[in-house]
Amino acid sequence: MVLIMPASEFPKFRPHPFRRPGPTPDAAESADAQPPFAELCVTTNYTFLNGASHPEELVQRAADLEYRAVAVTDTHSLAGVVRAHVAAKAAGIQLIVGARLVLQDMPGCAVCVYPTDMPSYRGLCRLLTTGKRRAPKGSCVLMSEDLAAHADGLLAVAAPVEPNGGPAEHDIRSLRGVFDGDRLSIAATAGYGPSDADGIERLAGFAARCGVPLVATNDVSYHDAGRRTLHDVLACIRHRCTLSEAGFRLGANAERHPKPPAEMHRLFAAHPCALSRTIEIAERTRGFSLDQLRYDYPDEIVPNGRTPLEYLADLTWSSAAQVYKGSIPDKVRSQIEHELRLIGELGYAPYFLTVYDLVRFARTGGERPGEPPRAGWPGPILCQGRGAAANSAVCFCLGVTAVDPDRISVLFERFVSKERNEPPDIDIDFEHERREEVIQYIYRKYGRERAALTAEVITYRRRSAVRDVGKALGLSLDLVDRLAKSTEWFDDGAAHPKRLRDLGLNPDDPTIGWLTRLVEDILGFPRHLSQHVGGFVITRSPLCELVPVENAAMPGRTVIEWDKDDIDAVGMLKVDVLGLGMLTALRKCMAMVNERRGSPLTLATIPPEDPLTYEMARRADTVGVFQIESRAQMSMLPRLKPREFYDLVIEVAIVRPGPIQGGMVHPYLRRRAGDEPIEPLPASVPDHVRRGVEEVLGRTLGVPLFQEQCMALAVKAAGFTPGRADQLRRAMAAWKRKGNLIYRFGQELIDGMVANGLPAEFAERCFEQIKGFSEYGFPESHAASFALLVYASAWLKRHYPAEFCAALLNSQPMGFYTPAQLVRDAAEHGVRVLPVDVQRSAWDCTVDRDGALRLGMRMVKGLGLPDAERIVAAAREHGAFDTMTALWRASGARATALRRLAAADAFGSMGLSRQQALWQSRLLRDAPMPLFDGIAAPADTADLERLPGVTPYDQVAQDYRATSLSLKAHPVSFARDRLARTGALPCATLRDEKAAPDGEVVTVAGLVLVRQRPGTANDVTFMTLEDETGIANLVIWKRIYDKFRRAAGSSLVIATGRVQRQDGVVHVVVTRMRSGAALVGAISTASRDFH
Amino acid sequence: MLLTKAVSGREVVVRRCAAAAKAGVEPGMDLAHARSLLPARLAPAVEPHRPECDAAALHRLAANALRYSPVVAADPPDGLFIDVTGTERLHGSERRLVTLVAARFERLGFGARIAAASTCGCAWAVAHFGKHALCGVPHGCERDGLRDLPVAALRIDGRTEEELREVGLETVGHVLNLPRASLAARFDPSLLRRLSQALGEIDERQEPVRPAPPIRRAIVFNGATDNWESIHAAAEELLAAVVKDLEARDLGVRRLVLSLREEGGGAVAASLQLSRPTRSFKHVWTLLRTRLERLCVRGGVEGVEITAARIARIKHEQCASSSLGGDGRSDERMAGELTDTLASRLGPDSVVCIDPVASHLPERAFRTRSALEAPLRVSAGSVPHGRPTVLYRRPEPARVVSLTPDGPILGLAWRGERAEVVACEGPERIEQEWWRWDPPGGGRPRRTASNDRRRPPPPARDYYAVQTRSGRWLWVCRQVGGGRWFVHGEWC
After folding, report:
1. Residue A919 CA, distance from chain mean position
2. How far does B388 lie from chain A, in Å, by closest CA?
3. CA angle, A92 as apex, A86 and A93 as ends, to 5°?
4. Is residue A418 within 8 Å of A342, Cβ to Cβ?
5. Structure-derived torsion over alpha carbons of residues B97, B101, B104, B106, reported in degrees to the nearest 10
6. By Cβ atoms counted within 10 A, which residue in A80, A210, A288, A951 is the most buried?
7. How confident is the model at residue A607 (pLDDT cuts 50, 70, 90)?
């Protein structure tokens, strides 16, 4: 039955779009190609906590639907456009760069703007920068006059906040004043709202009256209708509410995904112009693409009249002549020539010069040559390039890196490769306390306009995802905490029913089902932009015309919107200015040593290959030494037995998750010990391949330990090009994040090796090992850079233990050990350690003329530098003080500062015990007091006698409270009698092979120094105990750890287990644990826990 | 059992039961940490800590202890001071009194530590830190009683305690040993005050609790009566007195009980529930009178009693005075009185309020509740526009004629009638609230025996507003992808 519909006078009625003339869906489908359409309003997940799809997903979907073009219009941001650009190029679709602006004085209407050429793109970047720089981090404040000022060449689409809504009329009229009708459009959305047809009709009427064309869009927020759930959850996270509270803050339906063009044509059949307008806009924006971004290196680093390459070559050769004292080895000479050629071809000379400039600044410590040093000038800033840059002889000659290309094999392609066509990436470590000087130098030299930090995109990890999604789903805070803390319930993207039940949850609960599903979806979603630790971008033209710049959380810092991958993709220069604590410690240590020796010692003049230093390393006597001080490194040292520099390079690289998971450690150790022969390659292998493989793996006894070796192996044995090998390396690094790319490479690698006659088993093992590097692998050059510092710090520790310890204490926080452990270690090496004293200590720890280490006031908790300086100055000028009051008056330090010093027992030189000093210090008041008060209250000796006595135990407890260490006694020594009754042996017993032979069951007790559960050994916790005699290394299996969880978490652990001896390394494999925290009572010690 | 409070996004244990304390849970711990300490079989009941409830309970305990002495003071969070001066005799001796009190508190379910001393400070110190749970300090021996207790026993603040311990003064004895002047120069003045209070050198007063008598008025007739007028008059008089009592204490009544004592010992009672606290005689009497009339009394009535069974503070509100042109009444009060009147006429279950709920789903967009439970809120709430005025209890199936799946509706067959459609608007697409359903299958989470039967969210609905030839506007819907149509509501 068909009823004829009569005309109606009801205003509510509007004919459905379908009734209007236009192409029917059938007609559209019958045509082979999709009708033309371009989507102009797309919100990606770079509008943080709003868009529910990655730019790549959206672009891919648009390409699949055969859109003519797709825009990315994130709110006040271009953060996602580079990703979208890369994806669009791969998918072969036109990307329209754009941004959505919400103007403060235009509340009813957002504006999407699209640059049409390079100048208008610059304008857009400037506009966004303006808005961001005047707002706090992460937000943007723009007015319509700002838009008007930068509107040249931009196309605009006005998007009413209420879809198809009317209240935006006023705003659209004012936009009409900024953009002429030709550049402005009004967005109409058919989102299955309550009265779409009506609304669009009204909008069309209004648009016609203003003379502004209508444009069809779907206001896309996700690439697939299934992401609506995530879109809702993100809205909840943004509004800090749960789904059931969110109400109308969520969308009513799941229609905001890209729809097939035919469907869009059906929905907008009544307004064909709105559809053709999308194509028109897309065509007009063709004038701009991110490919046009031309990056310019800064030019002030080159003297006038020279080309950068000439200047770089001159510098390199002259420095090389200096470094090698006139006779440059042939290997190095040809390497430099090769590198300069490649640098010239790729035009990277200005980059090297920029980095050289920074290093030169550090070397001169901010002093201009020729001028006398300022008072209190702390000297040059130690710095050293790390990472791949150490693969370059040019960098070595310029002093950027310290690894002599003569000493290790250099693979320049790891650093700069023609195929990659990406600018090289140089990371330079500076002293961590003085990195800021370098950063300020960069800002000074290039200005804020041209230098900024790169961004780091903080993305959702499992823990944060569970936390935020759980809250949005309405789980209680406590439950969310529990779920987030233990990730055991969740593995491989599926919840584990039994473990969920253990957590007291019903695995069939829909909420838990959604949780697992949504957590999987949200993983990897960007959450906010943060600043990269030290990646600087420097340009010749203003930076804010290349990319929007925003304020960082830290005052005085500015950050660009793109992260380092984006920067790579658009080919911008980046220098990583990093801080390294050990450099600070080394500089301080060498300064003290120089003062004592009188002869200058620098990193370069430390005597090389000192047998005593290696002997110390072999004993694993390396507390405080750079890198090799960790428990894992220490237990490796006696097995690896380093004898020369290259052994240290291997030592640094081998105790890494990469080699450990790749199963390379044991084969290497066995071969090194001569227990296992280096397997010969089968005879079928052609000679050139054999030579290649032997050349690559020979130095490491046939086991690949470094990233470069994997790359070189791929080249030599599997026929990869160097560029392809570099892609393999990148796939390795991204394996966990990006999925299965590495398997494609893996097959290629194995096939290539087999084709070259290598056995399949060998090839597969190589691939397994390479896969291990995805976790964490070191390039050889990087390991070598670190090994230099390892050697330097070990040498100083061996020959100047007091200075070394003082320097470490003065550079805290750094390293693995607490000050208490460093001090104890120094004392064990025969250093006399003197306590903090108010009249004898400086702020820093110092070494006396006779080699004793005097702790500095910096060890006293809660004491500030200004007060300490006043006291030190007063003591220097006045000499000895008789009373605290006199010192207080003379120095002008605050009473609380003296009280802190009293608590630290620092008045020994005045003959006051801690208790007496504290009693006296309580008389001092910071508040202004009557004139003669205080003077009239002299030290009341009668009082002092009436104070109760303090036990040695309390003395130690108070030492720990005030300075975190005690020179009086070890806390465990007070419990020794009681421990002996329980049968616990002193830790030192373990050293004695007769008293504790392999396999013997022993009980040891001690303070927990370190708890460590390395990612590679999921089932084991390593714990180090310390008592007054020494340390004990525990190995605790997960089962035992869980069983004795409470005991394991206490500050003093009594552990029983079996002794395991191997190559001089002693472990106790724990079977039982007890907490002995009650034995040390009030002494609160800190352990360092690494999970 | 753990009581927790949220501190900057973390849940922190405030109180814990004995079992948890034994496992090492301490106040101030993170809840997650506390849980990790508890053995697996001890799944704790976790509830938010409500200090106001603690205070109220302590107050009740204090009122309960009034049996021992007229002067009892609460000492938050968990102590009571009972001034037993002169009352020992009533209970035999001080010693016996102490055991009596302890026994009573044990019966109430509390473990108590009790100390009797001649000063508040000394009693407090010994009760909190003494060796024994029950203890007496004879007059004049305060010094000896306090000597070995830690300095915290002096009721000093945490900072002063810390400062004392820093210089090695651990016990009260150490402090007593030192000259007062030296102490005064070095520590907070509260130290000396507390010391003097504990030793009885200066006087200390506590704020005693005053029990609030219940609001109850009764009349006993001179012999039983069945004269309805006099009962009526008595009730009216009593109510007036109750209202006066309420005024005196600035309270309102929420539940009022009127009971008639019958000849022979029985009683009949009428209870009146009010939607908001009130003390308007006129309003309550109007409601109460009808109740009184409905009471069925068998014999003569010996007496009348009115009790304000539930009382609450009346919210202060501003009313436009009649002299300024207002009527002296507030909207809320009028709404409350209307609710009470309707409820007493129609029965309490018959009066409901409708609250808007922020939800796109029409059937979830409102919620009803009893008007007596919470006062009527006069607020419009947010309701999406374009919704019908009447929503049917359940969607009624209909048959619909349209040309294309997504196209306009041309005709409608519903409730046995065919109707021609003259206007149609839509579709408006409304999705389900997906989180109330299982996630659609696909293997995750891992299947268990019982979750094979999943309930994925039903499909979205497309709603159309249609007008029939007879002029009715109906709200018609269909599940997306399915063929069945329903009429879900109507504008009228």
Report:
1. 48
2. 12
3. 90
4. yes
5. -130
6. A80
7. confident
Q: What is the ipTM of this complex?
A: 0.70
> B399 has which bridge partners?
B413
Are B460 and B479 in contact by the 8 Å Cβ rule? The answer is yes
Tokens 């009190």 sit at which residue?
A: B101
Picking from B186, B401, B433, B472 by the largest number of A CB atoms within 10 A of its own CB, the best residue to mutate is B186
Distance separating alpha carbons of residues B316 and B325, to the nearest angstrom? 20
Whether A244 has its CB under 8 Å from any CB of chain B: the answer is: yes
Token pair for B127: 């009760």
Phi/psi of residue A255, nearest 5 degrees: -100, 0
Q: Tell me the residue ranges of DSSP E strands in A977-1064.
A: 1001-1012, 1020-1026, 1031-1037, 1052-1062
Range list for CATH 3.30.1490.100 in chain B: 216-343
Q: Which residues contact B282 (CB under 8 A, 6 or more apart)?
A: none
Distance, CA of A8 to CA of A15 (rounded, Å) = 10
Q: Reduced to 3 states, what is the DSSP secondary structure of residue A427?
A: strand
Letter string b/e over residues B260-278, b meaning 16 or more CB atoms within 10 A of that residue's CB = bbbeeeeeeebebbbbbbb
User: Could you give the dihedral angle defined by the CA atoms of residues A939, A945, A949 and A952, in that order, rounded to the nearest 10 degrees?
Assistant: 60
Considering only CA atoms, which of A369, A24, A54 is closest in space to residue A223? A54
CB atoms near residue B180 (< 10 Å): 13
Strand partners, A742: none
Amino acid at A930: P
Write the pLDDT tens digit of every residue in B161-203.
988 888 888 899 888 888 888 888 888 889 999 999 988 888 8
* DSSP code, position A412: H
Half-sphere exposure in the Cβ direction for A5 (13 Å, CA): 22
Chain B residues touching A494 at Cβ < 8 A: 443-446
* Homologous superfamily assigned to B216-343: DNA polymerase, Y-family, little finger domain (3.30.1490.100)
B431 → chain A, closest CA residue = A253
Choose among A251, A473, A217: nearest CA to B384: A251
> Is B445 in Cβ contact with A507 (below 8 Å)?
yes
Asked if A18 is an interface residue toward chain B (Cβ–Cβ < 8 A), one would say: yes
Longest pairwise C-alpha distance within chain B: 104
Instruction: State how far Cα A1054 lies from the chain centre.
Output: 37
Q: Are strands B366-370 and B352-356 parallel, antiparallel or unpaired?
A: antiparallel
State the Cα–Cα distance between residues B425 and B147, nearest whole angstrom: 89
Indicate the length of chain B as a whole number.
492
Give the up-direction half-sphere exposure of residue A712: CA atoms within 13 A in the CB hemisphere.
21
Closest Cβ–Cβ partner in B24, B406, B437 for A510:
B437
Amino acid making up residue A367: E
Residue B337, token pair as written in the block: 């009185």
